[in-house]
Sequence to fold (311 residues):
Amino acid sequence: MSSRPKPPSYKTKNWSDCNAALKKRGSLTIWFDPDMVWTPPPSGKRGRQQSYSDAAIQVCLTMKSLFGLALRQATGFVESLLQLIGLDWVVPDFSTLCRRQKALAVNIPYRGSPGPLHLPIDSTGIKAEGEGEWHARKHGGPKRRLGRKIYLGIDEDTLEVRAVEITGSHVGDAPMRPELLDQIPSNQNIGSVTADGAYDTRKCHDAVADRGAHAVIPPRKNAKPWKPGTAGAIARNEALRASKYLGRSLWRHWSGYHRRSRVETKMHCVKLLGQSLMARDFDRQVAELQIRIAVLNGFTALGIPVTEAVR
Fold:
């Protein structure tokens, strides 16, 4: 007799609202707030003042990312939108957008949820530049690919991205866990942090314990108990004993480890906005991915399905 629990079936409770939200994601209605600060006030510092605010640059780059446009096309697209609604704002040219993207502080909105934050974390890779598989298959030689790694932490209740990090493909998963947790405000109560076995390290468990959260991380198959010198090590040893007593399958079901699949789905959504990055240097690639996250959080705010388990 197998000890693996039977997975439950789920039923969507708000199908009509979810269907309406999915339709709104395809709406071409774009709102511009006339009170938006398009041209920033003088900063009082020496040198030439900026002609466009960070919000204006983010608007243009959002249109670029959402519709898969080049910089010049994005400029023309935003100009036509402003003309249609009767605003006489000057749109930054392509060279300004390219220059400002490098140091842009992207605003990623989120609504938050009541109660403690439950944060599933995962990572994935995305192509950045290179000639790719087609060129290698056509002409031979190496593929010359360069990739980036994306680390996401989402709110389990609202499915909004609350933390994001972008690194080179040579960086491991475990060192990024503290970096993601540092993006959560210190006054935000974190209930649990869920991640795969790559995060089963002392530094990760200690970072979770320092925030007063519960770590849902499966111990490695060859895991040994740690010296109980820290709260993170003690919690990890308890998870190790529970997984050995219950078995890995039952432990995953008992601990709620399956909830990590929600962040895997969010990774898929990120790649729906493009399987590769258009920017060429690292800083601009970071801004490009952060703008994608802002777009996805906007989509999520329109509505998400509410499900319940049924047998």
In short: The first strand starts at residue 9 and ends at 12. The longest helix spans residues 282-302. The radius of gyration is 23 Å. The chain has a mean pLDDT of 87.
